[in-house]
Amino acid sequence: MTQPTAQTRSMSLWVLHVDMDQFIAAVEVLRQPELVGRPVIVGGNGDPTERAVVATASYEAREFGIGSGMPMKVAARKAPDDAVFLPVDHAAYESVSATVMATLRGLPGVTLEIIGWDECFLGVMTDEPEEVARRARQAVLAATALHCSIGIGDNKIRAKIATGFGKPRGMFRLTEQNWFEVMGERSTRELWGIGPRVQKRLAGHGIRTVRNLADADRGELVAEFGPRMGLWYGDLGFGRGPAVVDDKPWVARSHSRETTYQQNLTTTEQVAAAVRELASRAFDDCAAEDRLVERVHLKVRYAPFDTRTFGRKLSAPTSDRGGFVHAALRLASSLDPAREVRLLGVRAEMTMPAGGDPVERTPVRGRI
DNA sequence: TCTGGGGTCCTAGGACCC
DNA sequence: TCTGGGGTCCTAGGACCC
Fold first, then answer.
1. What percent of chain A has pLDDT over 90?
2. Residue A97: domain span
3. Given A34, A119, A131, A269, which residue is catalytic?
4. pTM, to two decimals
5. Which of A62, A75, A90, A240 has the smallest C-beta neighbourhood within 10 Å, fewest atoms?
């Protein structure tokens, strides 16, 4: 063990959250410069009359109240005449994303954890996190001509939330010191991991602000949300959360394929054909890996909007495509044949690879 | 207004065993 | 005939994130 020098002792571990500004729209504008300044809306196959939602809207489009997750039909109604609708081009975004991540990984002394196409955490030992952030933004701009914003925090929760205050093209520091000053009077909904449902349930207990949540009785939270989530939400009120940035490659625990049909499926034959195809495609992603498929799940949305999921245990090697597809078809036989099917999905849940799962789970959904 | 597609993790309740 | 308490596994469903 080497002794830490005086200098390293005075440094501390910072978490930076890097988020590309309007990533998908920015990539599109980059390769079609004539779109600069126009409202750009990317989603589905680019046809605003189809069943699809907005993946990203440029800042110009957001001025008209258009945002991600919004149905394309609604966006079309709000959009001005000069708006441009474009199809989603996964390959293009993946390629730019890879350049961004490689650039950030190349910064001296950083640990990188990818959490999405356009987002990552950087862990770094430093006394000047703003200086590191400035260099990171410069490096990304030089490599891709794209802008990003950076949140600086003493853990992932605070870094992630800080980014919102830095946007666009800026940075913001959020730590234990200024947490309540910045967040105390804001809605619980602004916390990462609290969505509309939990916000509503908290409000039912008179908990509306971040400060309210921090002050809330732990027993009451546990009674409402269970032992794990109750305590997790309580900590969230203080901005407490994990601070370890993990650069281990991410390994998926499941793969799925789902499709919303432009015309609802109405016969059992149509449903069976669709399930057969979706199951096979979901299995494609598992087939390359030497693992077991443990469960098969079916998701169905009946028109107009009634979603159900159900599954069954399975133990099929990732070489047994026929067995998996057959299991999915067996599940499909329990669908209601009299109802119109609007969406179908098939999910394969896998065992972790040999060596087990080394990552401690946290209740924050997605990759953290 | 009408709601994508890809994921992750948590909880409740029933089944089953001792 | 009525019935404990604890544990684990399984399934359905919920909620959230990018």
1. 70
2. 10-177
3. A119
4. 0.90
5. A90
